[in-house]
Structure formats: structure tokens, C-alpha cells
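Hi support team,

I submitted a single chain yesterday and got back a structure, but I'm not sure I'm reading the C-alpha cell output correctly. Could someone confirm the output below corresponds to the sequence I sent? I've pasted both exactly as they appear in my results page.

Thanks,
R.
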Amino acid sequence: MPSTIRGIFRITTLLAILLPVTGIAGTQQSINSLKHKYAGQRLQSRLGKVLAGGKDVNLEQVRAGMAWHYKAYERTQSATDRQAYADAENEAKAAKLGLWHDDAPVPPWEWRHSK
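Hi R., thanks for writing in. Yes, this is the structure output for that exact sequence:
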């Protein structure tokens, strides 16, 4: 069932990406990015892949450097999506966008294991 942007913040694992979590640099920036881009829009989610206005929200977050392409779940993606997400992450890293502005951003899966 479609939901408003508020519903997305209960999802920390969107299909094949991870958003920064509380305690990691970039968390608020990532959340604000989602709010700004998709405020007031109806979102459709299926298996964690979020679409808004026909756009892949997950891919847009990776492209903007607001989320990691979560390789542990990439096998759940189509070959096309897998390549698009990998390319988007590499381009965000090269441009030092979002979380990649930090020289050594800590991925959520590493941060969780350190706690």
C-alpha cells in the first residue's frame, strides 16, 4: 500500500542499499535528502525497492552519496539494477558526494558490529 514520506523512515534497509544509522556521520543529511526530494509524494514500496514519481528512490540515494550499495543483498537485484547501483556508488565516491565527503565513512554493518 502506498505511504507518505514519513513511512520511509521506519525502513533502514531498503533493497540493496543502507542509509546511515543514528550514530554515524551523515544520518541526518541522508534523511533530509529523502524529505527534500520526496516530501508530500506517495511512495510505493515492494520488497524494499521504493519508487516515487517513477524514480528509484534507492538508486537516487546511492547516486547522491546518501546511502551505500549494500553488496550483501545485491543478488536480490536484477543485473541491470546491480550495475546501476554499483556505478552510482563509484561515481558518488569519485565526486566525494554525501557520505563520501568523509575520508573514511563507516558503513552501518561495520558500525553495528563494533557496538
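A quick pointer for reading it: The radius of gyration is 13 Å. Let us know if anything else looks off.

Best,
Support desk
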